[in-house]
Amino acid sequence: MAIGLEDKKAIVAEVNETATNALSLVVADARGVSVDGMTALRQEARKSSVTLRVVRNTLARRAFEGTEYECVKEALVGPSLFGFSMEDPGAAARLFKEFAKENKNFEVKVLAVSGQMLGAEQLDVLAKLPTRDQALSMLMSVMKAPATKLVQTMNEVPGKLVRTLAAVRDQKEAA
């Protein structure tokens, strides 16, 4: 069924808004994936704050104009499933990577982060990015380490004195 001009404009505006707010984009070819598989993928996407869209490439090219995902225009060939990471830059990459392990027909075509297009072979790099909570915990552990070391060092001085006095006492008792 043909899509009317107004509907196309609405789709372009909606995808443009999503692309403007997204942190990263992963484009995949989902030909041959079963309906049950796609339903499972959509459920997992909702859990990880990933917006999935299937849009005609011509409409996607128009929607990406003026966004940082304009760089993927040349890679839009054939059916495309767009995964926009809304909260965590690596969420869509992790989702697509796990889904591709289970579905041999699912193929990642290209990724984009911060206006830079990456090939499908870079999927692991983006998928291994820590989540916000993981990054904050790593930062806090780095910030906490010097204070912990200082407290341990300060505690060692009286501890060493007590051990020395105990050794002297034991030596005098033995004599």
TrEMBL record:
<dbReference type="InterPro" id="IPR047865">
    <property type="entry name" value="Ribosomal_uL10_bac_type"/>
</dbReference>
<dbReference type="GO" id="GO:1990904">
    <property type="term" value="C:ribonucleoprotein complex"/>
</dbReference>
<dbReference type="InterPro" id="IPR022973">
    <property type="entry name" value="Ribosomal_uL10_bac"/>
</dbReference>
<comment type="similarity">
    <text>Belongs to the universal ribosomal protein uL10 family.</text>
</comment>
<dbReference type="GO" id="GO:0005840">
    <property type="term" value="C:ribosome"/>
</dbReference>
<dbReference type="InterPro" id="IPR001790">
    <property type="entry name" value="Ribosomal_uL10"/>
</dbReference>
<dbReference type="GO" id="GO:0006412">
    <property type="term" value="P:translation"/>
</dbReference>
<keyword id="KW-0699">rRNA-binding</keyword>
<dbReference type="Pfam" id="PF00466">
    <property type="entry name" value="Ribosomal_L10"/>
</dbReference>
<comment type="function">
    <text>Forms part of the ribosomal stalk, playing a central role in the interaction of the ribosome with GTP-bound translation factors.</text>
</comment>
<comment type="subunit">
    <text>Part of the ribosomal stalk of the 50S ribosomal subunit. The N-terminus interacts with L11 and the large rRNA to form the base of the stalk. The C-terminus forms an elongated spine to which L12 dimers bind in a sequential fashion forming a multimeric L10(L12)X complex.</text>
</comment>
<keyword id="KW-0694">RNA-binding</keyword>
<keyword id="KW-0689">Ribosomal protein</keyword>
<keyword id="KW-0687">Ribonucleoprotein</keyword>
<dbReference type="GO" id="GO:0070180">
    <property type="term" value="F:large ribosomal subunit rRNA binding"/>
</dbReference>
<protein>
    <recommendedName>
        <fullName>Large ribosomal subunit protein uL10</fullName>
    </recommendedName>
</protein>
<dbReference type="InterPro" id="IPR043141">
    <property type="entry name" value="Ribosomal_uL10-like_sf"/>
</dbReference>
